[in-house]
Amino acid sequence: MAAPAPEYPFDPLIDLDGLWTVELAQRYLPIEGMPPARYEAAEGRLRMSPREGSANSWAAAELVALLRSPARVAGHALYTALNVRTGLSGWIEPDLVLLHQPVRQQTWIEAEQVLCPIEIISPSSFHRDRIDKPAVCAALGIPYYMHVEIRPNDVLIELLRLTGGEYVLQAQARSGQTFAADEPFSFSFDPAELLEPR
């Protein structure tokens, strides 16, 4: 008689691979015993990435300080990381999210509520932040997308606008230049303001 197959404890990383949905995320995330991480999913596959370093964190805080007031004046709301649904089996968590209007006590944000995701490009997820996520957001009809790339002594920012189903460059600047636009709201600043102080 063959020995019974060993029983392994349930492990959501293994047992739910390819099956992740928002409902399963609400039930099983964050995963107990794992270090703090960003959880995102595409086509049912969970993607985890560590929190980035101080340069990205500083830039995110400075962007909030620079953009929150002009966004409010235009009737919009700027939030730090939110869960944005991308379908039945996926979601993204941009570093900052500009919504058309403020929300209250909402865990999962629908794509039609989003005016502009803002990603501070991470070395660990460069391809995803620069290529995959913009493609997903364009397919969902999100009107704008912003990239911020922090380098040791330089910052590059690009604001993209959805045109004909694809994002096209609307504004771009690097440290020492003026990054300015009138849409989705009026703002102007030097990207160097996002660098950590020396």
Give a written overview of the molecule.
Helix content is 23%, strand content 35%. The chain folds into two domains: 12-47, no CATH class; 53-194, tt1808, chain A, CATH 3.90.1570. The mean pLDDT is 90. With 198 residues, it is an alpha+beta fold. It has helices at residues 12-15, 22-28, 54-73, 126-139, and strands spanning 37-42, 45-50, 77-80, 83-87, 90-92, 96-99, 108-109, 114-120, 144-151, 154-163, 166-174, 179-181, 187-189. The chain starts with 11 loop residues before the first helix and ends in a 9-residue tail after the last strand.
Task: Note the topology.
Elements: H1 12-15, H2 22-28, E1 37-42, E2 45-50, H3 54-73, E3 77-80, E4 83-87, E5 90-92, E6 96-99, E7 108-109, E8 114-120, H4 126-139, E9 144-151, E10 154-163, E11 166-174, E12 179-181, E13 187-189
Parallel strand pairs: 4-7, 8-9
Antiparallel strand pairs: 1-2, 3-6, 4-5, 6-8, 9-10, 10-11, 12-13
InterPro entries: Nuclease_put_TT1808, Restrct_endonuc-II-like, Uma2
Protein name: Uma2 family endonuclease
GO molecular function, one term: endonuclease activity
Short key terms for the protein model shown above:
alpha+beta, tt1808, chain A, 6-stranded mixed beta sheet, 23% helix, elongated
